[in-house]
Design goal:
Layout (H helix, E strand, L loop, with lengths): L3 E2 L3 H10 L1 E4 L3 E7 L6 E5 L7 H18 L7 E7 L8 H14 L7 H5 L3
Parallel strand pairs: 1-4, 4-5
Antiparallel strand pairs: 2-3, 3-5
């Protein structure tokens, strides 16, 4: 399975409006199951979190956690991870534990696909 990214603004908007939202101390996760062949990831780290070095470190950590767990999500899921300000002081293990909990409890079941396909 290839690792694909969400890049366009309308792709992010679709996940925000039609996806499931799960919140944690360090991140907010939006999950939308579509009809795509691969899972796709979008990461948002605001400038208020820190300088470019710090933001890029956070993105690298989030992508690594995603890479490890991508196979456990429903095929064709679009996921957006929004980093919160508190993520800057968290260890990799703390972020990983929270993100795994959010991704796996927010996993969209196949039965709910029809609900989201109808546009709520």
């Amino acid at each position: 399975m290839t690792n694909q990214k969400l890049k366009k603004n309308n792709e992010f908007k679709q996940v925000f409006t039609r996806g499931i939202k799960k919140s944690g101390k360090y991140t907010i996760v939006f999950i939308f199951s579509g009809e795509k062949p691969n899972n796709r990831l979008g990461i948002i780290v605001k400038k208020s979190i820190g300088n470019a070095v710090k933001r890029n470190k956070i993105k690298r950590r989030l992508r690594e956690i995603w890479r490890k767990q991508i196979n456990q999500l429903l095929q064709g899921s679009d996921v957006v991870i929004v980093a919160r300000k508190e993520i800057g002081e968290a260890s990799f293990k703390e972020i990983e534990n929270e993100l795994l909990k959010l991704l796996l409890t927010g996993k969209v079941q196949k039965s709910s696909l029809n609900f989201y396909a109808l546009g709520r």
